[in-house]
Write a sequence for this structure.
């Protein structure tokens, strides 16, 4: 076995959390090595939509004409990520958001100051700002709305440009990267985590860190055993991941006495097209509406999958379908069509008259410009007229040139629970004491999420608390 590799701070996993931890530690003067089991950095972060949840008055928000405050951001996130969101982490996250924006920009991340102004999973444009449910009910009752989804200047998936910038910034800060290197266990001496054992090109290698080890290995959606134990809602569902989210960092830390939190929490995405849904209805298998179609698509998905009888349908008329430009339809086509709603409802296997009753109530509200039950913004209200079409959400879609990766029922997700950490990334035991020398961030931890999810908060809390973990590790003395 080759001799140990020594450094000050060892980061395990080179996604967004690992990158930001490494940059901060290196800029604080530490010698930093990052281990990455894949052949290149990036992780799920590089495959992602690249939406980062930032607010409180960022320059991009201001350039687009929006006033925002940390208090409004906190009120929205508390409502949207709850119940049971981590209040202390949320407070830090919102209070530090403008500074975090500035830090990202100073490290090469770019955002175009223009707004994509419609509900979507991912804009087909290079706009740098998007709504993530802030302007939809019930959140409009909770806080003054401001869009906070910040993203790089490319259509669809912007995760690659984000990670390209962070990887370049890490290299510029002097961070050394060992790819094809999989950490397998933590090395503990006298109760202190002093390094890891790893497999590198078929060899066992030991890495020693004089100040701290930061675990940023991602979540566990690719580990069926862990899903069955902790987050069975995702069992058999599509994986929103790079395929390497096997929970290895969580498992390594558990071995040395770490505690976990909120292991059941997860993001859920349903392959329905928000651009069509907002112009029509989303209904459950009984033909009932259950949500305002203009809210963040993850909330529609979560509500459906957690509490509504499947299958799920988007119901539109010809005008709604034609209004959405072909390139923004993501390959979605009606799976059923009819002149008559009773006929359509029967074809969809709904109770007699259920769909007609739902559409009749919706049309009455639309004529008056007020959605009585779910308060969809009047901007999107229009009575639906024959001919009608229904889209089976499970039929899927192809954003950009990619497949959605959802399971047969149109559902995919990733895990939000993980190691119990302080806001500075110290990994805690079940007794609430820090494990000396061990830090973690990103989806290997439980971050700012309770039972809810808003896009951008995973790259958001991964980069935000990754930075804090890197700084804390670099500042630790032994
Ligand atoms: C298609 C898609 C779209 C998404 N869109 C968004 C979005 O727009 N906004 C948002 O906030 N989130 C989004 N997400 C979720 C988000 O990308 C992830 O939750 C986030 O990137 C996790 O960051 P991380 O740094 O914790 O983990 P990762 O980015 O996955 O990085 C973890 C790294 O650790 C490595 N690793 C794992 N185990 C080991 C080990 N034992 N030894 C060495 N290396 C190891 C992995 O190979 C990986 O490179 C999306 C995800 C996907 C897949």
């Amino acid at each position: 076995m080759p001799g140990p590799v020594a450094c000050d701070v060892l980061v395990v996993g080179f996604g967004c959390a690992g990158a930001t931890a490494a940059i901060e530690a290196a800029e604080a003067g530490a010698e930093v090595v990052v281990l990455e089991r894949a052949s290149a950095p990036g992780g799920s972060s590089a495959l992602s939509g690249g939406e980062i949840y930032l607010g409180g008055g960022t320059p991009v928000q201001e350039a687009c004409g929006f006033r925002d405050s940390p208090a409004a951001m906190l009120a929205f996130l508390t409502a949207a990520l709850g119940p049971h969101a981590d209040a202390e982490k949320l407070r830090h996250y919102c209070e530090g958001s403008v500074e975090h924006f500035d830090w990202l920009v100073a490290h090469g991340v770019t955002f175009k100051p223009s707004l994509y102004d419609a509900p979507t999973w991912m804009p087909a444009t290079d706009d740098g700002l998007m709504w993530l449910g802030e302007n939809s009910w019930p959140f409009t009752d909770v806080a003054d709305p401001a869009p906070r989804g910040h993203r790089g200047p490319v259509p669809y998936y912007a995760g690659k440009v984000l990670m390209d910038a962070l990887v370049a910034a890490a290299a510029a800060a002097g961070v050394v990267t060992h790819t094809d290197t999989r950490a397998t266990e933590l090395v503990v001496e006298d109760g202190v985590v002093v390094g890891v054992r790893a497999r590198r090109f078929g060899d066992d290698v030991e890495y020693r860190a004089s100040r701290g080890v930061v675990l940023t290995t991602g979540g566990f959606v690719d580990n069926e055993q862990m899903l069955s134990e902790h987050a069975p809602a995702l069992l058999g569902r599509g994986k929103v991941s790079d395929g390497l989210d096997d929970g290895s960092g969580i498992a390594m830390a558990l071995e040395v006495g770490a505690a976990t939190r909120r292991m059941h929490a997860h993001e859920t995405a349903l392959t329905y097209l928000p651009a069509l849904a907002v112009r029509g209805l989303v209904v459950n298998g009984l033909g009932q509406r259950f949500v305002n179609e203009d809210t963040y698509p993850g909330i529609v998905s979560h509500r459906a999958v957690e509490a509504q009888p499947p299958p799920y349908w988007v119901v539109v008329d010809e005008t709604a379908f034609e209004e959405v430009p072909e390139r923004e339809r993501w390959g979605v086509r009606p799976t059923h069509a009819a002149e008559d709603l009773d006929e359509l409802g029967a074809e969809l296997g709904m109770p007699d008259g259920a769909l007609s009753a739902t559409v009749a109530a919706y049309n009455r509200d639309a004529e008056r410009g007020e959605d009585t039950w779910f308060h969809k913004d009047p901007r999107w209200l229009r009575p639906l007229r024959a001919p009608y079409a229904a889209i089976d959400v499970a039929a899927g879609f192809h954003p950009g040139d990619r497949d959605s990766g959802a399971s047969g029922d149109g559902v995919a997700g990733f895990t939000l629970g993980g190691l119990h950490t302080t806001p500075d990334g110290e990994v805690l035991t079940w007794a609430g004491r820090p494990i000396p020398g061990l830090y973690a961030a990103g989806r290997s931890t439980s971050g700012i999420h309770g039972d809810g999810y808003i896009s951008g908060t995973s790259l958001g809390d991964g980069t935000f608390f990754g930075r804090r973990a890197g700084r804390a590790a670099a500042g630790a003395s032994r």
Notes: Residues 272-395 form a domain with the Flavocytochrome C3; Chain A, domain 1 fold (CATH 3.90.700.10). Residues 11 and 251 are 16 Å apart (CA to CA). The two ends are 27 Å apart (CA to CA).
